[in-house]
Amino acid sequence: MRKILIIVILVIFFVAGCNSVRFSVNADELEDINKKLTELTTFLKSSEQATATNEKQLTTLTAQLESIKAQVVKIEKDIDQKEQDIKAGEEKLIAQKKLLDERVASFYKQKGKTQDAILQILVSDNLTTFLKQFRYQQNLLNNDRRTIVRVVLLVKDIEEKKIKLEDEKVRLIPIKEQIAKQSLFLEGEVLSAKKYEQTLKSEIASLTAQQQAVIAQKQAGLNLPRSAGLSTGGCIDDRNIDPGFSPGYAFYTYGSVHRVGMNQFGAYGRSRAGQNYETILNAYYNNIRLECRNFPNNNIRVQGYGEKPIYEYLKGIGEMPNTWGDSGGYEALKAQVVAAASFAYAYTDGGGGEICTNQNCQVYLGNNKGGKWEETVNEIKNFCGDGVQVMVSNDTGEVVKAWYASTHGGYAWTSGEIWGSNKPWTKHFQDTSTNAGSFSELNERAWDKDSPWFYCDWGSRPQYNKTAWLRPEEVADIINVILLVRKNSSNACYVYQPDKPAPSPDPSKGCSSTDNWSPEKVRQELGSSAFKTINSLSISADFGSGKTTTVSGDGDVGSFSFGGEEFKGWFNLRAPANLQIVGPLFNVERK
């Protein structure tokens, strides 16, 4: 009875406006959480059965679990608030009890007067006065009755809500237990994924220094174009060229070389879309401003040419085609002038050192290039007079070392990701007009899509119409090599490209054997798990970062799946001739 009395007084107090109990959380929200947990459990079971956990999927699952946790925390806070409100109401009990007692006493008092009404009317001297008093007593009685009825209804209502509150608490217990269980599972999966990633890295690292030197030599033979203004190097898109066999597979890389800083063909695409040179520079360099700086005596020391006036030097830069100035790329030329001046200033430490003239620094032709390029240099000169316009980092205050390259393949990367030393003016982003989430969208939206080196299968073989197409059995051999090294890492010393002998052994670089196992020998070592042919290949990629994540497919003995970096490393070592995958994002084409 005392419990009910406390609740009654509490409700009266809350209705009076002194406080308010909130019952905003209901069973629907708990049902929603249970539904989400069921869906999450389904995904987790699928993940648990996978042979290799996808870290991106784990991130998504973790985010879902965190969202569920946040909802549970909100419910717990609402429950806590309800309990705090009830406790506050109980503290008002003493003051409210007196009011309730007066209401109850008044009710019974007025009820007694009503029962005596007939007797009183018989002895009353003034009927009118009596009737007024009677009506007044009836009104008091009705008011007290209404108050008591309202209190009874409120008691019933709050008792029901307290029952629901207790039910919420009970239902939260298994949900929290399930969340804790799934959290532990996810933590284990993340650790497993990291361990798997480290395993892949160690397998890639199992390429000895000798093998890595072979890959570097093969790539050097491709003469990868670093500058958009040079016609040397490059590759031909083989998709419409018949190699003389079918089916065939070719691996296409997006972009070439380092992909740090300005994407020259990307700048050209942006210029043609109407972006000015300042917008272009801010797209490729992070948190920079344009300033005028002077070289010592306005000269720069150029390797093989001595000191030259800075603007004479800039007019001889051969990094972009002159023709771009007449085909919508004039703003790209202006961006290149500023980038070249910035690189020269930073490379020579403000003019104190000497700059080389090839692609290891930036291409200098030794003479005035003329045409639109000279016109562009003169226009930039107008901003600073004898000084030059350069980019300055707002983070460090130094003139930025403005790296750039011909073709990034739809993505720019930070210097830290490429060379291990991060500079604040470099950044990683998708270099597209709008976000791309597939290979086809990237091909349509990348600013540098018109580059001849945007999407290329690097390398060629004369006997196959100078293409980079591979036979299914040649792809099978590369896959067998990966399986062989996974089986026993020491087998790595016996695999090089099958159409050439192994390099001279160098024990200090990891291997002492002169053996180079043929495809037949690799299959023999693998036994029944060796592939003789490939039926299909597919590529998965993280289009947010611009990396191929998985190479998978099936063949005559089943299916396979490898990490993108793992596959690229062994492909570049084992592929015949000079066939290479030259970047982090690559795709496969089938003919």
TrEMBL record:
**UniProt entry tagged with the keyword Amino-acid biosynthesis:** no
| UniProt keywords, alphabetically | Coiled coil
Which regions form coiled coils? 58-92
Q: Which residues form the Sporulation stage II protein D amidase enhancer LytB N-terminal domain?
A: 308-370
Query: Where does the record place the region Disordered?
Result: 498-519
Q: Which InterPro entries match?
A: SpoIID/LytB_N
Q: Write down what this protein is called.
A: Sporulation stage II protein D amidase enhancer LytB N-terminal domain-containing protein
Q: Which organism is it from?
A: Candidatus Roizmanbacteria bacterium GW2011_GWA2_37_7
